[in-house]
Amino acid sequence: MDAVFQYQIPELHPLTVHFPVALLVAAAFAGAVWLCRGSAFWRGVTWLLTGLGTVGAFFAYFTGDGMEEQAEGVPIVEELVGLHEQMALYTLIGACLATLLVTAQAWWSRRFGLRADPLPSRLLIAAVLIALGVLVAWTAHIGSTMVWGVAR
User: Which residues of the chain have pLDDT under 50?
Assistant: First the structure.
């Protein structure tokens, strides 16, 4: 029983990666609902999920180097780590862009007192969020392949 309370996690990356995956995929779904509804409530939900997912993506991205060093010499990691890191960077940039777009839309709507957000801006943001959700899933798939290998 002592081992349960004395165990220390050697790397934070495996803990941090799940938050942006869950939050940014949920943000894509919220963005799709916001696209259909156009309400300030769904814009707020989308903004919150995207913003938190972006913060999580920063933590996940910047904790990856330690994990890479720990896994040196593992063939599947050596093969995929560069691609995973590149996709993680694209995911981080996409998350920042999505957060910026939703924040700008919220500012614009408040500035001009709009009750519903314009359809073209909702469509653009939803498309960015859905693309981001796909990118997150691809990045996560590469990472999980390095951890668990290829299913046979």
Answer: none
d(CA 88, CA 3): 33
Query: In the structure encoding, which two tokens stand for residue 31, read together?
Result: 């963005």
Report the distance separating Cα 32 and Cα 57, nearest Å. 21
Alpha-carbon torsion angle 137, 23, 55, 44, nearest 10? 130
Q: What is the residue whose two structure tokens read 């560069």?
A: 82
pLDDT of residue 135: 98
Rounded to an integer, what distance in angstroms lies between the CA atom of residue 55 and that of residue 85? 17
| C-alpha to C-alpha distance for 11 and 4, rounded to whole angstroms | 17
What's the confidence (pLDDT) of residue 150? Answer: 74
Torsion of CA 126, 128, 134, 139, to 10 degrees: -140
